[in-house]
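(Protein data)
===
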Amino acid sequence: MRSERSPRCLRAAAHGYPSRVRIYTKTGDDGTTGLLYGGRVPKSSPATEAYGSVDEAVAALGLARAFASTSAEAADLILDLQRELFVVGADLATNPKKRSKLEPEVSLVTAGMVERLESLIDAQVEAHPLPDRFIVPGANPVSAALDLARTLVRRAERRSVELRRSGAPVTDEVLHYLNRLSDLLFVLARWQAGGPEAPSR
């Protein structure tokens, strides 16, 4: 089942939830969904697929964070990544005619966000050298959930490329962010595995 997060929820997550949020509106009963700052698209549209895939990754990271509850360092890092994915989701879910309303690092992905991921990857690889062979995910619940999130981020990247090729204004920063994030999640999964993992052969 494909999950999706409405632009209303993305906006609330970016700016803080109001005192009352009505979960059901019935406006999507016709098979469409609203964009951030107005406009509607089919729920099967490339845009919905792209930001819906981002939402799936956020949920998988939530699972990883729950399993990592005994490691404050890992849990805090995962939470930061979840929050940044809300920025990615908002960027992808915005009405193309209203992109001037987006705020850097609140609803608009920036080059600085990509650079921070690259720095995290470099630091993690230095501290936790990567295996020299393919491994089978599943050493423990934390690493398995991180690997699941990695695959969902890869899907979000593919969907975002598809959205861009349809003519939508998907920025380089969004594509670069998703690509680097999947790399970072691979590295974090190996760190959280905590030792040798089962080889693919």
Summary: The CA atoms of residues 68 and 75 lie 6 Å apart.
